[in-house]
Each structure stands twice: as structure tokens, then as C-alpha cells.
């Protein structure tokens, strides 16, 4: 009998909480955003998907970055952005429903200052719930990567350098030959004044048979993203060739225009 009463009371409490409370289903915060030469992420949309019980008299939604309040919205009022974050938030409606109008926010002027942990908290008169996720920003918009390999007697000396990159990079030297043994030195990583990093790594490869294809990979701890030094070099060369072709085409057009003009007179 006591067990039955205990179970009944527990179910009543759970039912009451389900009817009179807050449920945060999920928050939308991208795990990884890259800032590169070719891709421009003008904005990042964050959203807080929650449910409220009917007739909640009060509603307050707050957003924090790294435990610092950046944004808040009281139902029935315009949202407010904290002064130190106004350059990074673009105000816009998330929904036409009164309980969800400004629950999310749009980040703008994307740069590494926005890298961090974002938390949405939802408050009513009696309850409070929150959820947080990490936003990782990788900035390769102005980085430089170089890789060199040279034969020295029976060994191949490898060197990889990367500059002006964020976050802190991890360098790895590899070969497509499974029999090649690569002994890497300790990487040298330096923090720049602009909060980006420079890094370099040297290594010696043994048992290379002359047909090895070496490469340097740049990765970041905990992130599903890496860069191949050779692939980036090929891309830069391709862009340079494309630019030269455009310049040459424009030059030809200009010359033809001059010739036609002279013939007319």
C-alpha cells in the first residue's frame, strides 16, 4: 500500500511538472564555423527551442557567452543586447508566436572573438532551465602554410610551417609509404599579438624509396577539420593562375578596343 501511494505521488509530481514548467528541447549552436579566403560566414544563427506550460504569466530568455550575459528578451518587450556585444548581434524575430518571438539571436561580424560556450536560459515566474553548447571558430582567412622535403644522403628532411592561424594548430608530417619511418621533433608554437598562432615542425624520414609523397597536415584539438599543406598550395596556385588569366583577358579586350578606335578615325 505504501509503495502504491509513493508511486502515485511521484507520478502526480511528474505530471504537474510536465504541465506547469519549462522544457528546453534543444539549442542550435553550430559546433564548427570556418573563416576562410573563399567562404564568407556573414552571420551565425543561434536558437533556443523550448516549450512552456499554458498561461505562464512571465517569460524571460537570456543568452550567455562564456558565462557572461550578452542578450535578454522579456515577452512583450523588445530584446536588449548588452553594450559590449552590440557589434556582434543583429536583432531579428525568430518566430511570430508571442512566447518565441525573440528566443534566438543572430551573430554578425564573425571573428575569433565569438569562439566560446553559449548558453540559453529560460525563466518563468517559478522555474528556470538552461542548456549550453560550444561554438568553435577556425580562422584560416589569412594563414600561410609551407612545406618542404629534401633528400640528405639516406634520409629525407621535412619541414612544415604555418602562420597566422586560429585556434592553436597541431602539425603532423605524413608519407603515403607505410614503410617510411618519420621521426618528428617537438613542434614550436608561438602565440601572436592578434591571438592567432604561428607553428613549425621538422622531422627526418627514413626508409623512403624515392617515390614517397610527403605532406603536412594542420589540425585542431577536438575538431573534425584539417588542412593539407599541399592541397592549400595547389589551391593558391590555381587561384593565382585564374587571376592571371582574367588579367590577360582584360588586357586583350583593351588592346582590341584601342585598335578599333584607331581604325574608326
From TrEMBL:
Keyword Signal tagged: yes
InterPro entries cross-referenced by the UniProt entry: CD47_Vset (IPR013270), Ig-like_dom (IPR007110), Ig-like_dom_sf (IPR036179), Ig-like_fold (IPR013783)
Pfam families on file: V-set_CD47
Domain of life: Eukaryota
Position of the signal peptide: 1-18
Coiled-coil zones: none
Keyword terms, alphabetized: Signal
Domain Ig-like: 30-136
Protein name: Ig-like domain-containing protein
Gene coding for it: 106083416
